[in-house]
C-alpha cells in the first residue's frame, strides 16, 4: 500500500473537498443567489473545482519531481518548504473537516433523499449503520494509541504529546509527497549512508573509472524505468479509486437516496484501509509486548544503559581516524568478492581521500 501512497493521499483529499463543497453549495437558495459558484462546485460547464484541484495538485507533484531530479538537496530545501506548507494546509483542513463530518454523521445516520426538481435533500426516518463512520473512527483513533499504551506518561506530558501530534500531522504530507517523490527520483544516488564523506556513490564500490561509469549508467537507467512505472501506477490507482468512489452525484438529474447502509465501493475501500490500521496496531502491540516480557524476565534480552554522547567522545579519542572502521569494512567487503589481488588496502584509503599520514 505504501507504493500507492501518493495516489491514495491525493484521492482522499480530493474526494473530501469535492463532496464537502458540493454539500455546502447544493441548495436552491445558493444556486439562485450564486449561480457561478454553484456551477463551479456542482455544475458540469467549464472548468470546475474537481478539474482545477486535480491540475493544481498535479502541478505541485510534477514540480516536486523536477526539483528532486535537477536540483541538489541543499538548494532544493527552500522549494520543498513552500510545497510542504501548501500540502500541510490542505491536509490539516481535510482532517478537521473529516472529524466534523464524522461527528455530524454519527454511526446511525438518517437516510436522505434528493429531489432533482426542488434540488433539496429530505431527511427520512429510516436509520442505517454507517461503515464509513466506523472506518473513519478506526483510522483516526490511531492518534490515541500513545494514551492507551502509556496513559500516565501521556497525562504528565500532555503538551509534548500534543506538540508531537501537531508536528506529525503537519509533516505527514511532506513524508508522503515530498520525501517519497525525492527518493523515487534519486534511486540512482548511492552516495549516502554509512560510508566515508569522501566517497561518492560508485567510487565506494570500485576504484576503476570505467566500472564506476558503467555502474552509474545502470543505476540511472533503473531509476528512469522504476520512476516511470511508479508514476503510471499511482496515476491509474488514483483514476480508478476516484471513478468508483463517486457518491451522491446530483448532476445526473435522478432521485438519489443516501445513507442506505449498502456496502458499496467507497465503504469497501475505507474498510480495507481501516483493516490495515488494525493489523499494524495489533501486531505492533504484540511485538512490543513480547519484547518487554523478554527484556524483563530473560537476562539475554536485557539492554545495557549507554550514554551515547560519552560513547561518541570515547570513540573519537580512541580511533585514529573517524572513518577508519568504515574503510576496514570496505576492505573486508572487497576481500569477500576475491578482488584483493586488484585492490589493496592502500588503494582503498587513497580512493577515500586518506593518503599516507591521514
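Q: What amino acid sequence fits the structure above?
A:
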Amino acid at each position: 500500500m505504501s507504493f500507492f501512497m501518493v495516489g491514495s493521499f491525493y484521492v482522499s483529499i480530493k474526494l473530501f473537498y469535492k463532496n464537502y463543497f458540493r454539500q455546502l453549495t447544493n441548495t436552491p437558495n445558493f444556486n439562485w443567489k450564486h449561480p457561478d459558484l454553484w456551477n463551479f462546485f456542482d455544475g458540469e460547464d467549464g472548468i470546475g473545482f474537481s478539474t482545477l484541484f486535480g491540475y493544481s495538485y498535479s502541478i505541485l507533484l510534477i514540480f516536486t519531481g523536477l526539483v528532486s531530479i535537477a536540483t541538489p538537496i541543499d538548494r532544493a530545501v527552500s522549494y520543498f518548504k513552500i510545497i510542504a506548507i501548501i500540502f500541510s494546509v490542505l491536509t490539516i483542513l481535510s482532517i478537521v473537516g473529516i472529524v466534523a463530518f464524522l461527528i455530524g454523521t454519527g454511526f446511525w445516520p438518517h437516510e436522505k433523499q434528493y429531489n432533482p426538481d426542488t434540488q433539496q435533500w429530505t431527511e427520512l426516518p429510516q436509520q442505517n449503520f454507517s461503515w464509513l463512520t466506523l472506518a473513519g473512527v478506526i483510522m483516526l483513533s490511531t492518534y490515541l494509541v500513545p494514551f492507551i499504551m502509556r496513559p500516565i506518561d501521556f497525562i504528565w506530558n500532555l503538551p509534548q504529546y500534543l506538540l508531537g501530534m501537531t508536528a506529525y500531522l503537519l509533516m505527514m504530507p511532506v513524508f508522503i509527497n515530498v520525501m517519497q517523490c525525492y527518493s523515487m527520483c534519486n534511486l540512482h544516488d548511492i552516495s549516502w549512508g554509512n560510508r566515508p564523506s569522501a566517497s561518492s556513490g560508485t567510487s565506494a564500490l570500485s576504484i576503476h573509472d570505467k566500472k564506476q561509469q558503467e555502474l552509474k549508467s545502470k543505476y540511472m537507467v533503473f531509476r528512469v524505468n522504476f520512476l516511470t512505472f511508479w508514476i503510471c501506477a499511482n496515476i491509474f490507482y488514483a483514476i480508478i479509486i476516484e471513478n468508483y468512489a463517486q457518491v451522491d452525484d446530483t448532476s445526473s438529474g435522478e432521485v438519489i437516496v443516501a445513507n442506505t447502509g449498502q456496502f458499496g465501493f467507497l465503504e469497501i475501500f475505507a474498510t480495507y484501509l481501516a483493516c490495515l490500521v488494525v493489523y499494524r496496531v495489533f501486531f505492533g502491540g504484540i511485538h512490543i509486548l513480547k519484547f518487554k516480557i523478554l527484556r524483563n524476565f530473560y537476562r539475554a534480552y536485557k539492554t545495557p544503559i549507554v550514554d551515547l554522547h560519552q560513547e561518541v567522545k570515547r570513540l573519537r579519542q580512541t580511533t585514529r581516524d573517524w572513518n577508519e572502521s568504515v574503510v576496514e569494512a570496505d576492505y573486508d567487503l572487497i576481500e569477500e568478492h576475491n578482488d584483493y589481488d586488484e585492490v589493496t588496502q592502500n588503494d582503498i584509503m587513497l580512493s577515500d581521500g586518506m593518503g599516507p599520514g591521514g
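Q: And what stands out in the fold?
A: The chain has two domains: 2-303, 305-358.
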